[in-house]
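Appendix B, example 12.
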Amino acid sequence: MLTVGDKFPAFKLNAVKGGPEGLEGPGKSFTEISSESDAGKWKIVFFWPKDFTFICPTEIAAFAKLNGEFADRDAVLYGASTDSEFVHLNWRVHNSDIRDLAIPMLADTKRELSSALGILDKNEGVALRATFIVDPEGTIQWASVNGLNVGRNPQEVLRILDALQTDELCPCNWNKGGDTLKPDELFKAA
């Protein structure tokens, strides 16, 4: 699996648009998103295993609820799975939790991105619940992966983004606005 310090792989994937445009139907709901999209922004890319499952919509909806907070931090959210854009669209239409989803749903149908990232489940052949925070230069600054049966905490991803954007030393359980560590001050106290 790629990790902190690695370049996020180049990609070009079909996607269902976020927002109301994503519900307009085949041909109108689709777009292409690539590693060049949203250049100069932080990117949070999170994968789920399969559409039409139980844990996945809870996570997707929870990430989407924080979309405005991520945008305030000059970050974009991309959700992805190995399902096609047609399956994503059908799922949005039929699941009230994600019907009004404000973020795009990327379709890694050839498994090229999930393979390049090293996040395919060896038994199921679907993406694990992996999350990447990628800086504006395309370098992975945080990576996390859960098994297929355990959901994530998007609020923690936001907290980590806040910490990364300080470019300072952030102690355990640090939250935005909290004190960061100053090595010079720590050595003076000793």
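The mean pLDDT is 95. Residues 73 and 162 are 8 Å apart (CA to CA).
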